[in-house]
Sequence to fold (411 residues):
Amino acid sequence: MRFLILGLNYLPESTSIGPYTADLAEYLAQRGHQVQVVTGFPTAPQWQVWEGYRGHYFLREEMGGVPVLRTYLYVPNDPKRVRNRIMFDMSFTLSSLLAGLMTASWDLTVVISPPLQLGLTAWLWSRVKGAPYFFHIKDLVPDAAVTTGMLAENSLPVRLAYALERFIYRRARGIGVISPGFAANLEKKGVPREKISLLPDYIDLDFMHPVVRGNDFRREHGIRPDDFLVMYSGSIALKQGLHTYVEAAAACRDHHGIKFLLVGDGPYLPDLKDKARDLGLDNLLFLPLQPREGLPQQLGAADVLALTQMRAVTDIVFPGKLLYYMAAGRPILAAVSADSESGRFIQEKQVGMVVPPEDPEALAAAVRFLKENREEAVRLGDNGRRMAAARFDRQVVLLEFARHLETLAGR
Fold:
């Protein structure tokens, strides 16, 4: 069969959706299918086109045995402005539309969203090329914009986005979601249950495995063997609410031996650094994103792996970093709403502790609790590793994903 995969992010980006999309494309190719990827130029997480990709409108390359066609992106200087983010998304929506017309015919389009507008691109392709589309949702874009306060619920952009959602969902041959909360969200919006498939993110358990905490990563960054290390790793965006993490570090600065580490990049990083400087924190270290091949040592160096979200975030996101955290065999400390998708999962599966969001004192108290109760921390971390193996094994999830796409394409 012939599949065209449409998604904004792809390797060599190591954050966001890119690695998952590449895994899917390469897995389908390994099953003997013809696969073509249409994607953007790498920009995550610094919001700059990477060196070696600049100066192009279109670029063809091959990665992992899969042909990849990259198309133009408008990359704003200030991605925090809503108008700039919309222009960024629309630039890829339009350039990818043209790119698809330059490719050979195919049996099924696999859309990786966000951005939401890619569903419109896939629908237009279906009118020209005759290929139906499968819409796989990684983030509920309109809901996220409202809950994070970027846009008002009754604003024109949000009303248009919800209308576009209805249009795209109605015309898709199938819709994939990464968590049960996403499925419930779609059903409330009138999407038939039989049209929705639960296809979670996945983790390579051979690559991401527990390692000893006293590894080279600690030594390279001056973290002492007896330091109790709390680590956040990933993108730094608005919905993460990472100001809580910085303020929790301030609440722990008088507690000897507790260190906080924030590894990542994104448009809100300068704000966090300014806050840490204003608070005079010497127990909080910032590091840029580290090479992906060193991720097991990086996460394994932590005693606790942290996750924060804004209070309004409920069923709009299920962070992929949770899978990496669990596979690393470390307890998760989540400052999230208890009834959010992340909060419910962490509590039900007993893979970590959940404290109220945007409450740095509660987060700091939980850090101190885990420091004083190492056996409980180990238990939660072990539970996480078992859960990663039971529910999110790459080989199991990708096989189910591929079979579902094959069924849709052959219908």
Notes: Residues 82-101 form the longest helix (20 residues). The chain has two domains: 2-202+393-410, 216-391. The mean pLDDT is 92.
